[in-house]
TrEMBL record:
The gene is Atpaf2. It comes from the Eukaryota. Its main location: mitochondrion. It comes from Leptocoma aspasia. It is a peripheral membrane protein. One of its GO terms (cellular component) is mitochondrial inner membrane. It is found in: Mitochondrion inner membrane. Keywords: Chaperone, Membrane, Mitochondrion, Mitochondrion inner membrane, Transit peptide. Plays a role in the assembly of the F1 component of the mitochondrial ATP synthase (ATPase). One of its GO terms (biological process) is mitochondrial proton-transporting ATP synthase complex assembly. Belongs to the ATP12 family. This is ATP synthase mitochondrial F1 complex assembly factor 2. Interacts with ATP5F1B; involved in the assembly of the F1 component of the mitochondrial ATP synthase (ATPase). Interacts with FMC1.
Amino acid sequence: SDSPGGFEINLDHRKLKTPQAKLFTVPSEALAIAVATEWDSQKDTIKFYTMHLTTLCNTALDNPTQRNKTQLIRAAVKFLETDTVCYRVEEPPALAELQKNEWDPLVTWAEKRYNVTIGSSTSILGPNIPASTKETFVSHLASYNMWALQGIEFVITQLKSLILSMSLIDRHITVEKAVLLSRLEEEYQIQRWGNVEWAHDYDLCELRARTAAGTLFVHLCSESSTVKHKLLQD
């Protein structure tokens, strides 16, 4: 239901509350519907670990780590220093080749899209990311609200990559592709040696679910994302 603070969720005529007992209100109707759907799909026992949107809303409302916007942005940009797609192997050559073919186009896209220099490295220390690149990402992320930023950080922690996350949130790649690219080494090993079927499939589905939920959350919390998206396409 619509309330001054946003949209509330009512479960069996009870108002939903956060873990810190705040009234559960969300900024957009679409997000409220998505959260209600998560609750509706729960059966006899409530499995919170399957309710990623609800969890993200709780995080945004309660802010358990008590970080402000600047701290959230800095934490996100810090991932550039250890970004999955920037760390390359030299051995085995087949994996090095795979990383080059799959990750290079993404890095190139990000450099053009954000007008920055990123690069990649086979050094254990990773690439030397210019300070100007970090500052550009800081100001880009500052255009998002606190809710969206919580979602962005959630996606980044799933994919261990700011570049993959931004490509996904900017609708340059799909969730499936982003997840695959974040697990390139694992996928390479599996193609080579085979895998423990159920464990791998479970991990993959779980990672996809989390990544999809985080991306959806960001889009539902950035009211102007459709406008932004249109402007980018023109």
